[in-house]
Amino acid sequence: MTTTLWKTKLAARIHDPAEKALVLLRDPAGHEGGTSRVLKRDLGLESGTEDLPADPDALGDILFDRLAADIHRAVKRADWWSAAADRPQWPLREIDITTRDGKEKTLAVADYARVNWVKRPILKHPLTGEALDLKGLQETDIRDIKQRSREHFQGLICRDGAGNTDWQRTLLAFWRFGPTLKETADNHTLGHLWPLLPADTRVPDHSIWDHLDLASAFAGAFAGDSQGEAALLAMSIGPVQEFIASARSTSDLWAGSHLLSRLAWETMRVICEELGPDAILFPRLRGIPQVDLWLRDTMNLPKEWFADEAWAKRETDANPLFSGALPNRFVAVVPAERAEALAQAASDRVRRWLDDMGRQAVDALLDSLQINASDSRAHRQMREQLEGFPEVHWAAVPFSLIRANDRKRDTDLDVTKLSEAMAPFFDGEDAPGFLGSPVWHALSRAMEADGIRFFSPNPGVLYPAVHDLADRVLAAAKAVRPFQQTRQEGWRCTLSGEAERLALDDEDLQEYPGRTGDSLWNRVAGQKKSWAKRGEHLAGLPALKRLWPSLFAAEVAQALGMDRGQVPRFVVSTHTMALAGQLERWMSEGGRSPDTSLMQRLEAAPAVPLPRRLARQAVGKGDFNIARRLPGLLESAAEADQDQAMEEARQAVSRLLGQKPEAYYALLMMDGDHMGRILSGDPAHAVTYRESFHPDVQAGFDRLAGKHPHIRRYGEQKRALSPGRHMAISSALNDFTLHVVPEVVEEEHPGRLLYAGGDDVLAMLPVGHLLPAMRRLRDAYSGRGETSNWQSARQSRNLVLSNGFAMLRGRLMRMMGEGATASAGGVVAHHQAPLTAVRRALEAAEKRAKNEGGRDAFSLTIVKRSGGELSFTAKWDSVPLLERLIAFLADPRVSRRAVYHSLQWLATLPSHPPEDMMAGLLCYQFERQCAHKSAAQHHDVPGLSRAIAGFALDGEAPVRKLANLLAIAEFLARESRSGASSFRSAEHGEIAHA
Q1: DSSP structure class, residue 786
Q2: Does any domain span residue 822?
Q3: How many CB atoms lie within 10 A of CB 892?
Q4: Separation in Å, CA 851 to CA 64, 588, 856, 955, 961
Q5: Most confident option among 191-205, 319-333, 939-953
Q6: DSSP-derived 3-state class of residue 561
Q7: Picking from 181-190, 289-298, 804-813, 956-965, which range would have the lowest pLDDT averaged per residue?
Q8: Which of residues 173, 206, 239 is at a domain's end?
Q9: According to the 3-state scheme, what is the secondary structure of 293-314?
């Protein structure tokens, strides 16, 4: 069975060639007569040498006839289902073909629906319908394209010691590296386009890889089930928020998010090993570093294939393996009869893995104290406290709920059983959910017009209904949360307060936490300051989170062939981040040298990690050692708790930097809006069938639709949810997480990325970089930009955005599209403020952006050291205005009293003053506080005042809105944050001079 499963999946994966879009309507042998035929022969999937027919429409069936009958049926059925699930129905005409058994009738695509894609290479964004015209795509010679493709895949075939095809490893190799064409001079342009080549040139909104992944998933499910039945399996782990939120340091924040991502992978891993990673439709696993590591070290794909991957080369925690890119939920296509067993195996696997990690964490704690114990009280506590964690929920819905009356082609569908299963979740509607939608009404029957008829629907068309049912059953399963009572007798964890702290014995467990006793945790604090502070006592799960950075760093070191503990973790402190902007300006301006007294202090101070961009600019220079020790000097003085020493250190640093050291830093949290709706196929976030067509097809379709109302109505329907949509979303989120977010936060800005997974981002930044980084991330999430010349974008090393796509160092990536929005919260806080309180303020800011801002908005909170908070919430389009106001107030020719005086007279205004009055008063105050007329002219104070007044009066409580805007801008414009005469631009990190 195993061999047949992998062989079937591999046959499905090569049933269409990767270069299909480039050879369709150009190759006399047909798209299935080139690479696909050669690979079937090389793999031993086809036999016979008889001549093939010249008619390309007949070629595919004959090639498949050479497969074993059971594989042939599974692959053909998988192709039908995956095509129906991902693409609109297509007009067909009936033609005669000659086969080995004589002449037969078959169907071919209508003439107007044929597209020579090379002549007009257009990609459509699946979520918005936006067109990306890849102008300049040359008509590469067909034979050359086919040869490159053939050689690429032939190089990925894995064989055993006897020279026979290793079906599983070859399938994994084709899945992982098929979309990655090796970078050569000949492949340069083709290599950029290769991952996004469309599966169907008529609907170029999903790639050939999406189609092949789905066909392989369905084929594997059919082959792995004794009745040939597939099911959709949805699984989730949790709880999420409380697990991540329990944190006392930036390292804790990273550890919670990353550990949750790792738990998700350990759950998915069972499905990957049993059915292949392409069985998981969401999230998309291709290119995820943790999955790559599994392919290399567990599945034994050649190490040299991964040599150029960033995770195989970076020997610090900048390694992408440290990025938690996987969500806590996944959807997979599995054999129906094995769904329950696979779900249970996944649940058992993740809990066994976590139990082993818990044991390793306790071992590490005891090793640090040189205690040799394999089953101490702490070990037992850890096992007991981890029991039942994480919560794993699952639901499976078989496609057998859909009956095909025409079993030969899976057509003429009976959805009675599916309707009955969905009914309880839809309040007894006659046609529940998708079955009652206009889309299903259009897709459920064949349509005919002018002697041309559409494909008949097969069960793949009902993917939206099956997915919706699985989603609702999973939600019901999660609502029934199991509760297991536990006995906790000793002092509780000082971080979570939920479970008793880990202890060496009864006396340790009962000792009052505030005493300076000889407890496990006080002893650990004396040996490992990164694991615990004096007086801090942790329970099992918080302890595992605290030690996870060390445990995972050791795992990465082993993967890179380094000694245990050799992967340095750069935990950038809040104090270092507060100074990062000033340090960067100091270095860019040439940097004044420290005086003798300061140099002596720096030599005795610890060197601390710097943000990546800052370290890269300073490394190899004399500035590097100074920049690393300045924050360490201030931190050491603060820890010494000696006011005089701290004041002397701050004065010395002030003389060096030319200004008072910044004490505030920023945290940024961004989250995609309506992600649940987007994933569920909400029509508000979908395009019509017609909008997804290639422009050449739209013209012919419009002519036909003009004569036949039922075809016009079909074209007007919003696209139904599809696996391709899920794959496109997941691919976009993966690229956003793994490539775009680190580029924005750590390359365009001197920030530190704490977490990026899916549509969630958590980052730490210097205060002056908060606004531009927020706006850049928002634009990148949607792929919103002005560049249209992708030819020149390929040559750029910078991030380029346009039409829902992104280009970074030659890599073309699909983002979420203009229709997808995101909201963000930002908090500016003193570096000594408790992180738990700052995190709460950050979450509240993000919620304000979504609730008060109405989503697609941002909210800023400033937590002052002296007490009190400032907050400001607005739509993204107001960011340029805020930055313009900050630039004005940061100009050294403008007095800080400009805001103070304005706030005083604001209190005397009526609740809704006339716009001219508000603008005039603002203009008067601003011009009055300018030391030179040139400052007012440079910043166009009258225009700025009118813009501010118009913004304030657009909505409720305009006076309060204006006061918040002025207060926030004044705080952000202060010298240490803005750089006095300059502020950080949102445009790719340049300095814009005011």
Answers
A1: S
A2: no
A3: 11
A4: 55, 41, 10, 15, 16
A5: 939-953
A6: coil
A7: 181-190
A8: 206
A9: HHHHHCCCCCHHHHCCCHHHCC
Assess whether pLDDT exceeds 70 at residue 977.
no
The reply to whether 190 and 60 lie within a common domain is yes
Number of H helices and E strands in the chain, helices first, is 40, 23
The answer to whether 392 and 235 are in contact (CB under 8 A) is: yes
246-274 residue pLDDT tens:
777 778 888 888 999 999 999 999 999 99
> Do residues 265 and 309 share a domain?
yes
Same domain, 42 and 188: yes
Q: How far apart are CA 744 and CA 572, in angstroms?
A: 17
Mean pLDDT of 364-386: 92
User: Is residue 987 scored above 50 in pLDDT?
Assistant: no
Same domain for 246 and 326: yes
Please check whether residue 503 is in contact with residue 509, taking contact to mean a CB–CB distance below 8 angstroms: yes
Containing domain of residue 89, as a range? 2-206
**Residue 379 is assigned to a structural domain of this protein:** yes
User: What are the two backbone dihedrals, phi and then psi, of residue 640, each rounded to the nearest 5 degrees?
Assistant: -70, -20
More reliable by pLDDT, 267 or 534: 267
Domain shared by 374 and 247, yes or no: yes
Q: Please list the alpha-helical segments (H only) found in 852-940.
A: 879-890, 897-906, 915-928, 933-938
Instruction: Return the beta strands (E) in 201-353 as ranges.
Output: 230-238, 280-282, 329-335
List, for residues 446-500, the tens digit of each pLDDT value.
Answer: 666 666 665 678 899 999 999 999 999 999 988 876 666 677 777 888 888 888 9
Looking at this protein, which amino acid is placed at residue 87?
Answer: R
Measured CA to CA, the distance from residue 646 to residue 636 in angstroms comes to 9
Residue 730 lies in a domain: no
Question: Residue 113 — pLDDT band, cuts 50, 70, 90?
Answer: confident
User: Do the beta carbons of residue 222 and residue 391 sit within 8 Å?
Assistant: no
Which residue, 529, 559, 589, sits at the end of a domain? 559
294 or 569, which is more confident: 294
Same-domain check for residues 358 and 435: no
**Cα distance between residue 567 and residue 316, in whole Å:** 5
430 and 554 in a common domain? no
Say yes or no: 191 and 296 in one domain.
Answer: no
268 part of a folded domain = yes
Q: How confident is the model at residue 184 (pLDDT cuts 50, 70, 90)?
A: low
- Contact call for residues 723 and 731 (beta carbons, < 8 A): no
Q: What is the mean pLDDT of residues 195-220?
A: 93
For 293-352, write each residue's pLDDT tens digit. Answer: 999 999 999 999 999 998 998 777 778 888 888 889 999 999 999 999 999 999 999 999
CATH number of the CATH domain containing 350: 3.30.70.2220
Q: What is the pLDDT of residues 831-866, one digit of tens each?
A: 888 888 898 999 999 999 999 989 999 999 999 887
Structural contact between residues 580 and 770, judged by C-beta atoms closer than 8 angstroms: no
Note whether 862 and 833 are within 8 A (CB).
no
Radius of gyration of the chain (CA): 31
Q: Total domain count for the chain? A: 5
User: Read out DSSP for 508-551?
Assistant: HHHS-TTS----HHHHHHHH-TTT--TT----HHHHHHHHHHHH
Alpha-carbon gap, residue 444 to 458, rounded angstroms: 9
Distance CA 27, CA 18 (A): 14
Nearest Cα residue to 491 out of 547, 544, 536: 536
